[in-house]
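TICKET #2291
ISSUE: user wants both folds in one file
ATTACHMENT 1:
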Amino acid sequence: MRHAAAAAALVGLIALVFGVSVGHEFVFDDTSLVVENELVRLPLSRAHELLVGNAGGISYRPLRIFSYIVDYRIAGGLDPAVFHASNLVYHALATLAVYALASLTVGSFRGALAAAALFAVHPLGSEAVVYVAGRRDLLCMLLVLLALLCWCHLLRGAPRVAVDGGAAGPRGAARRSALLLGMVLFTALAMAAKEMAVVLPVLAVLVAIPLRREAPGHDDGAQAWSALGASIAALLGAGVWLYGNVIAASLAKATDGALAPQPALSLRVLGRYLRLAFWPSDLLADYRAYAFALPEARLDGPAFVSAGVLALVLAGGAILLWRGSIAGAGLLWFLVALLPVAQIVPYGEVVSEHNAYLALVGLALAAGRAVTVASRVQPRVVAVAATTVVAVLGARSHVRALDWQNSLSLWRATVDAAPRSVRGQFNLGVALVAEGDLLGARTALERARELAPDDLDILLASATLAGRLGEPSTAEQLARRAIELGQDGRAYTALGWALVSQGRATAAVEAFEAAIALGDDGSDARRGLARARMRGGPL
């Protein structure tokens, strides 16, 4: 009964902290991944096309897209409430999986509940929960934990000496076979959700060390380790099949150099994830370089600080693991799960908070073990302290969830936390235009242009806005600057409208014709061409 009560309490906690997200809109990459993605509208009978690449569109991480197809069928359309509610369901299932894993490893009911509650409400994981595009992390982590639960049960399986043929009989053999197959299947599905699943074999070994210390009288046998070998094969096979082109592109980028000097960049990235795990103050939706202070040397002050803290975590984890404690496995889990996104292989996202969703499980297990040990001495004090920590983190996550309500609230929160975020200032300007606040939009776009004066999208948005504000000469100047950066049809369209506003019909016709010739043959360019000809331009 107490496990059922704990599960109910955890689900209620999630609803209390994140339930507000059901009323949120689609934001940020939700537009391309869900709203504009034709795959989401596929009938379920064609879902297999996600695996063979015949469907077109955005089929990257096919299990996530499949989950969107299911949501679309449930909602009968693109109802954001259904998509957000599904995220909450997946997060609740992931939290219950953390509770199940902690129940097997941390040594007490209190510790397991504390671990799951901490994971459930941690602000560093909030992005994955309240952002529909974060579904990849929810699914991947849930399936990784299901695979690890199968692994743990295999390791804790049959005693070396079976009594009356019980554990060693047909039922025991069938159970172990089901666990083996389950581990392989969940591993392959985790990779189909997100390639972060590649760390699963290392996590399995980390968990196995303390688990085997606690149950030395059980036979892990060839079957348990065969399951791990088969899972590794499933990871490699699914990874090459689904992400072969992406992996090749990432490896090619590795030869082009990092975003900033190494090892300072990776040390700073890991240090930031660790800081946000313990002090989640400045949470950001922007992952690009302008939102973060990148190192300029191979080693600098912040990198040394990060290296020192990381060394302490690594040493503490290794010592605790050597002693057979799950806390050590948890601390090392946190670092291992972040290695694929630590800029060792360069890519455009410097720090993405949703990438820490799987890593947080390690800290949760370490915290659960700490609660178990401390509760033996001061149970009431530990209970009050754990409750307070969960309450504070839950409050922070609730506030963060409100930031993701819509595009305007999200990008306002982003530029408040990182004023030098180019993406934040630009997207805030676009959101303010949609709200009709043109003067506020001009301020945001001007800040974005100061930070990135040669960004084509910023110049085009600024030119369009200047035209709407009745500033055609400014719009012309910005459009011509955009044209200087490259022959883009959209820039010629913006120039055409600026010239129309100035009564220069002949020049406007030439600009619109150039736009259409360059491929910008949408309604805006053709409507502008017709307007310019009506005002005296050549036919």
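ATTACHMENT 2:
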Amino acid sequence: MPKDIPVSNGSFLLNFDSDYQIRDIYFPFIGQENHASGHPFRFGVWVDGHYSWMGPEWEKNIRYHNDSLVTNVFLRNASLGIELRCSDVVDIDINVYVKKIEVANLEDKPRQVRLFFSHDFNLYGNDIGGTAYFDPRSASIIHYKVHRYFLISCWAQHKWGMQHYTCGRKNSPTDLATAEEAETGELSGEPTAWGSPHSTVGIWLNLDAKGKEITYYWIAAGMNYDEVAKLNLEVHKKTPEELLNRSSKYWEAWVRKSLIDLNDLPESITDIFNRSLLVLRTQIDNTGAIIAATDSDIIRFGKDTYSYSWGRDGAFVAAALSKSGHYHICIKYFDYCARILSEEGYLFQHYNPDGSLASNWHSWLVDGKEVLPIQEDSTALTLWSLWIHYQGLRDIEFIRPLYETLIKKAADFLVSYRDTETLLPLPSYDLWEERYATHTYTAATVIAGLRAAANFARIFKDIELSENYDNVANEMTEAIKKYLYHDGLKRYARSGSRIEGGYKLDEVIDISLLSLTTMGVLSPKDERMKETAKAIKEKLWLKTPIEGCARYEGDVYQRSEDCPKDIPGNPWFISTLWLADYIIEKSENHEQLKEALPYIEWCGKNAFASGVLAEQVHPVNGSALCVSPLTWSHSAFVWTVLLYTEKRKKLNS
């Protein structure tokens, strides 16, 4: 179940699903240690002897407040005669998640409404060796294990702390006896449980006829008891309402810090633009790592996650944020890249948020021969992104230490890692992490990375080095034209496998071929490039009610059994936006430029109501597929909108 809304402060993140249940809890690193492991933290209501968990019985509208990372959730259960309006936030300064709930009694008689919150913590990502207990000192429920503590408390009708609670122990993953107790409207008050514990708390509210009441519920995250106890006292001192208000004001100021002219763009685009910036911030750890996605739903496939930092995804996110004026959030990311870069100057596939090497999906052996298990584009794109960052901030003091530790090391690797005969990059894994070959997209990113390194070398007066980087980029550009162009098909090939005298070319059409233009290698006016782009549009644009653009012909990743057999693959947000990028690059007047708008608007049409973008969507019904939010989707949206506004400004001048 893809996630609708994340709330985060860079150290503490919670994801909600489409039933408004907490599914993922990360602390103290975003994307590392999921303390919920995708298990639902259920939220339900009891009134007049009837009980209902959040689910199909509820009418739901799950959104954020405008220009904010505070949620704006409407819930209505007609059979219970109850409406709820909820706001959720993780405070910007302290690691406390706050939920505000306004309960409305729709009936013309006084009633007692009971709210229940069930917690299925898997601290450190597993359900072994934990403890849950009622803490009389703070009048709260605390879940803890080793150095992970979560304190749960509330305020209701002028009373602080939990009055109704129970703790239990699971005998199986779905054995949540405390949640079953809630369905009776009562909790037994069991004060402790250990091993594989869970807990449920209740808030009793007495409502007048047609009356309303406001209550607050919060979770504090820390490393020990004293820390969460102090955070709880801070909530008492500041009040939950003040935490909500200050966070809302901060995020509104944050998203509006850059004066980007979005005038004349449809509201559907401007709304997703601001939302994308905010969503990107939720997925960035305060120590620098940019996480691909924190959605645990992908664990069902392959027993792994997207909760890692890829050089590829991180570079695109940092480039988009820098281009939008949010430079400072990227500074720690590039420091992070310098820390994780290998001594040889390359990045492995992905890393954990704390900088340790993550699981590697690539083999060190291909056809029995030792290879580097890398995607070379990740290393190259890091340099490309850093140059975009520098162009905006012009902070030479920040760049100076990175020149030796990141820029030169990575660029020297790109220079050395190439075929001595063809001068193209040596084989590596492709951007989709599926094939090992020499890829046109990879070559394009290497050229862009070397151009960036040459620019930095000129700044530091390393003229000989800058000329070398530029010369290698020039040689590689000519090599692409010579070896990766398919004379028979009259277009570029997505990759080649080395044979004597050249390459056996892969004839499959791939959206990544547009990188030849978008990375600045070839002009969009180049006739070969025009034919390549034409073939991409003809072969990859879906002829279904949803439309959108696939990644490549024959893409089966996340394809459902009910999908039409004749489609190239599911439509991806980044593929659709890359088509728009190419149109923007080649446009020479306003009419041509406007041809890109439908591709950008497609993203808004297929976003969640919250503005969150998944990785891909179902080609017929438009439902979200794979993870959401995907940082790459949101960064691509921001990047495309900024390209559009820049080109419009240029055409106006």
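RESOLUTION: both attachments delivered.
EXTRA DETAIL ON ATTACHMENT 2: Residues 631-652 form the longest helix (22 residues).
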